[in-house]
Amino acid sequence: MALMLKKDRHGNFRKYWYGELQDCNKIKIINLGEWHGKPPASLHQLGDDDFEASRKEARDELKR
Questions:
Q1: How far apart are CA 64 and CA 50, in angstroms?
Q2: Could you tell me the CA-to-CA distances from 25 to 11, 21, 28 in Å, in that order?
Q3: Under 8 Å CB-to-CB from 5, ≥6 apart: which residues?
Q4: What letter does residue 61 receive in the DSSP assignment?
Q5: pTM, two decimal places
Q6: How far apart are CA 57 and CA 49, in angstroms?
């Protein structure tokens, strides 16, 4: 399972979190809801409080 943000053709983040699941050797990409706040330059770093709260919500949704 992976949590990710995608970029549009202009290089800006799309406004939704996405999750990657593997089911019966098929990879499924699902929408996990809108993110809020200001994302960091790299997703390996921390964003502002609103962004991190939305990341936690998306991670919890992905686990379900």
A1: 22
A2: 30, 10, 10
A3: 13, 14, 16, 17, 18, 35, 39, 43
A4: H
A5: 0.81
A6: 12
Quickly list DSSP for 5-57. EEE-TTSPEEEEEEEEEEETTEEEEEEEEE--S---SSTTS---HHHHHHHHH
Distance of alpha carbon 32 from alpha carbon 5, whole angstroms: 10
SS3 2: strand
What confidence tens digit (pLDDT) does each residue in 31-58 have? 999 999 998 888 788 989 999 999 999 9
Which two tokens mark 13?
């983040």
The residues spanned by each domain of the chain are 2-63
